Amino acid sequence: MPSEKKKVSVRKLILDYILITIGVLLYTFSWQAFVVPTGISGGGLVGLCTVLNYATGIPIPVFFGTINAALLVIGTIVLGRGFGFKTIYSIILSTIFFAILPNIQWIYDIGMNTIPVDSPQASLRYLVNPIIGGFLCAAGIALIFKRNGSTGGTDILALIINKYKDISPGRVFMYSDFCIVASIILLPDKHLSDVIFGYIFTIAFSYMVDLILTGSTQSVQVIIFSQKYQEVADELMYEQNRGVTALDSVGWYSKQQGKVLIVVSRKHQLKEITQAVKEVDPKAFISVSNVSAVYGLGFAQIKGSQKKKSQENRLKRLLKWIDS
């Protein structure tokens, strides 16, 4: 048994690094193919280091290495040693790919050829490239995140914040990148259009990161109005294994009393629920609404609550010891 577990662990570790490598390649490819050829700037640590370089004259690698080193130490302490090793691997690999990919001409040509230069719609390249680049960049980052890795910079910051606060990584990226991209307007030879297209890239990137990382955990609240509420509730509970809450209701027009059923489920389970309801009662009325967060059994747990509770218990024991 121990040897089998060790084999599984080794296979999982190898798979992690393979997927991280693919994610890093996709991430760096998106920048070199769709962002750099257009001449726009995005956010992240690289963007911040560029702004600091123009402001102080200190080389970008100095800022990049110093900030990343500090964030790596904090990330390793907060998120674990495995996170640190995978992140170091991702940062080194990203650096190598960023050095190699610009020398491959066809990668540069991809971004330049999305719309021919002599086309009347050539200016649309500045709109198309940030969107495509943002989506591909997010796909690469999300793949790295799913294997507990990171390319450094604001990625580490996003994971640290997400561990203690219910703020999605995409939102952390958007807030930090908003400030970084806005500061580009202060740099020489940059215009408002560069800021606008930088924001387009940032929005596309943040949206896709959230969609990939939290798409499977998004939840919905389903409210079911049916005269066959008992049969519907039994079908959902015993056949679909869904929790059901029944509330008293009165149809104000008919003055007829009944029950309203409430079900909370993952978004990908919605189709199964609605089909089950319609099979029992084709005349049922179903209302579906997205919910921002669901806490409890089978869903997310409130972060930080256990730590706070343990601190309160220690304080109570200390006060009891003092009183005694």
Number of helices: 12
Helix content: 55-70%
Total tally of structural domains: 2
Kindly estimate the percentage of residues that lie in beta strands according to DSSP: 5-15%
Distance between the termini: 51 Å
Largest sheet: 4 strands, antiparallel
Mean pLDDT: 77
Number of strands: 4
Structural summary, described in words:
The protein is an alpha+beta fold and 324 residues long. The protein has 2 domains: 2-216, no CATH class; 218-291, Alpha-Beta Plaits. It is 64% helix and 10% strand. It has 12 helices and 4 strands. The chain has helices spanning 2-35, 44-56, 60-79, 81-100, 105-112, 125-146, 154-164, 169-183, 192-214, 229-239, 270-280, 305-323; strands at 219-225, 245-251, 256-266, 285-291. Strands 2-3-1-4 form a 4-stranded antiparallel β-sheet, covered by helices on one side. A hairpin with a 4-residue loop joins strand 2 and strand 3. The protein is elongated and about 75 Å long. It starts with a helix and ends with a helix.
Give keywords.
four-stranded antiparallel beta sheet, 2 domains, alpha+beta, Alpha-Beta Plaits, 12 helices, 64% helix
Structure at a glance:
The protein is α+β, with helices and mostly antiparallel strands and 324 residues long.
